[in-house]
Amino acid sequence: TANNVLLGNGTSAVQAVAPGTSGNVLTSNGSTWQSTAPAASGAVVFLSEVTASGSSTVDVETTFSSTYDAYMIVCSAGVVQTNNVLLYAQVKVGGSYDTGSNYQYHTAIPVSATGSYNALVSGGNDRISIFSTISNAASASFSFCFYVYAPASTSLAKNFTFTGVCNTSAGGMQAVTGSASNNSTSALTGVRFFASSGNIQSGKFRLYGIKNS
Fold this sequence. Notes:
By secondary structure, the chain is mostly beta strands. The chain is 0% helix and 57% strand. It is built from no helices and 17 strands. The chain has strands at 5-7, 15-17, 25-28, 33-36, 44-55, 58-60, 70-80, 85-93, 96-97, 103-110, 117-125, 128-134, 142-149, 158-167, 173-182, 188-195, 200-210. The strands form 4 sheets. It has an 8-stranded antiparallel β-sheet with strand order 5-17-7-13-14-15-10-11, with no helix packed on it. It starts with a strand and ends with a strand.
């Protein structure tokens, strides 16, 4: 057939491999050749995206599984409705979002106007505090990376780290670096973000899997 690739087949009739889907490459499986999609490059695999649009919560739920040991949620250019709000996170474990006092966190907060450091801390809360004061000014936004570790485990507590930056209601910049935990040993299947007051007006929340090897 036109455009097929011929393969040697000993004393038998030659074999042929069709081009297959556009973009495919000729790949060895150890014994013969096949037309297959190229392997994803890099260590990070894009999985899903949620776009905030006047959202009371932004729920990132597609897809957490045992495929990867670590996941990363990247929020870019988030905008809040109300001035001077905090940004919170909760996780979906055992099929529902945990709203009990099962979260521990420490968020370190350097700001642009001072050399001192503030912090948000808790040894038992119903949410994780990420930012402490986000502005809703026309030019203001927040962005962050939120890492989830071993979400599919049914024997370990769920651990997280995060880092980000926002414009503050005082007109400055706030950076955050934090770690958190939820004591549930049920599988994690989602992460929810929400403001302390009002909606998240806009922003992209993208979920990536970090390859195990």
